[in-house]
Amino acid sequence: MRYLVDEALCGGHGMCVAAASTVYALDEDGYNRDTGRTVEVPPGLEGPARTGAAACPEQAIRLLG
Q1: Fold (CATH) for 2-64
Q2: What are phi and psi of 25, to 5 degrees?
């Protein structure tokens, strides 16, 4: 599984990290550090990746595969 964070949609709320800090992290400005690129979810962390994506109020995280 991979995910993509839409930088135009990410509002810097940090809800993804609050829900799944094992998958997502914030940059120095408080936005998801992976905005604008596709990232591989580490094996075994698919559940937290889904939880973190669902927590995003802007629906900025798209799960792929």
Answers
A1: Alpha-Beta Plaits (3.30.70)
A2: -145, 160
Phi, psi of 15 (to 5 degrees): -65, -30
Cα separations in angstroms, 18 against 2, 32, 65: 19, 11, 23
Give the pLDDT confidence of 11-64 residue by residue, as tens digits. 999 999 999 999 999 999 999 999 989 999 999 999 999 999 999 999 999 999
Is the pTM value of this prediction over 0.85?
A: yes
Domain boundaries, the chain: 2-64
Residue 34 CA to residue 54 CA, distance in Å, equals: 16
**DSSP letter assigned to residue 26:** B
3-state secondary structure of 62: strand
